[in-house]
Amino acid sequence: VIQERLPIxxxxxxxxxxxxxxxxxxxxxxxxxxxPLTDLPQVFIALDARVKIASSGGERVILLEELYxxxxxxxxxxxxxxxxxxxxxxxxxxxxxxxxxxxxxxVDKPCVxxxxxxxxxxxxxxxxxxxxxxxxxxxxxxxxxxxxxLLAGKPLDPKLLEEAASLAAGECHPLSDLRGSEPYKRAxxxxxxxxxxxxxxxxxxxx
Length: 207
Description:
Layout: H1 2-5, H2 7-13, H3 19-24, H4 27-32, H5 40-46, E1 50-55, E2 58-63, E3 68-70, E4 73-74, E5 81-86, E6 94-101, E7 112-120, E8 127-135, E9 142-143, H6 145-151, H7 158-171, H8 182-206
Antiparallel strand pairs: 1-2, 1-5, 3-4, 6-7, 7-8, 8-9
Helix pairs in contact: 6-7, 7-8
């Protein structure tokens, strides 16, 4: 079912950690950890996912985007767990792409991860709605809203994409660490936006 309806998740899961971790880890556990250096949150946020949260007192549903507060901090209470991830169907003429960059090995935690999603208008050229979600470059996943706003309502062209990538790089808040300096990570964000968004755009044209 996932391969048929949301193949992007299968693509992403192939690059998460290593096979030993993938065999025992859960999607809910990954999302609930608040770990900033991971892949799934930005993909699900790009998909406008919601999470169903349960406790002894009942259930509630919130946007995944609203779950994260700070480094390893979420809005989950001590007695709550994530029981379900709800992903609405992608509209027609939509495409999504996720690209991660790891500065050491493919099984290492990502240095930067960028998820892009676009829905095109009836002409299959104009970006009707846009999502760009940046991961690993702030305490929580970041919506690049300025870049999204620039692209929305326009057909894609190289100059527009360059400007959007520059805006996205300025919207994140990376910390310098062993995986790279702040300027380096901002540069990687720009590069990944320029790679990921055209792929999502192409998929939307084919959808």
